[in-house]
Design a protein that fits this description.
Elements: H1 2-21, E1 25-31, E2 38-44, H2 46-72, E3 75-84, E4 89-94, E5 100-104, E6 110-113, E7 116-118, E8 128-136, E9 139-147
Parallel strand pairs: 5-9, 6-9
Antiparallel strand pairs: 1-2, 3-4, 3-8, 4-5, 6-7, 8-9
Length: 149
């Protein structure tokens, strides 16, 4: 039982230290004017926690995309030559200028502007992109598109 309490205390202290370091928690003290009372205030910054969790989720998604590209080898880096909004496709010329890819951008495609989440409306002609794609039903479908990648 003693070992359990020590392990629990260490975990609480480590998590508390991490929360303080990440600015999720602030600690302040106050004293009454006559110094007869003092207090400690602990505040949770919910906005900062939410922001950091969203960043971590985006980083995990991008890491997953990079792992998928490494495993499948289906990644193209180049620039967008054209966008066909009727067919929801874009034509990407590889950075070596030797190969052209017509890639579908579907609702589940993850689009990033560097590391910030974006939408397919942010894609534009001549944008430099890194596209991770897969073949589905005889066509190339983007899993993720990183603008500026």
């Amino acid at each position: 039982m003693k070992r359990f309490l020590i392990v629990t205390l260490v975990i609480v202290l480590v998590l508390g230290g991490l929360a303080y370091y990440m600015n999720w928690v602030t600690v302040s003290t106050s004293n009454s004017p006559d110094k007869s009372d003092s207090g400690i205030r602990i505040a949770l910054n919910k906005g900062k926690v939410k922001e950091d969790v969203e960043k971590a989720q985006n980083n995990l998604e991008q890491t997953g995309d990079n792992v998928r590209a490494a495993l499948t080898g289906k990644k193209v880096t180049g620039h967008i030559q054209s966008i066909n909004s009727t067919k929801d496709t874009m034509t990407v010329m590889s950075s070596d200028g030797k190969q052209e890819f017509e890639i579908a951008v579907v609702p589940e495609t993850h689009v990033y502007l560097w590391t910030t989440p974006a939408t397919n409306r942010d894609l534009g002609r001549d944008d430099t992109v890194a596209v991770i794609y897969e073949e589905r039903a005889g066509r190339l479908v983007a899993h993720s598109v990183t603008i500026g990648g």
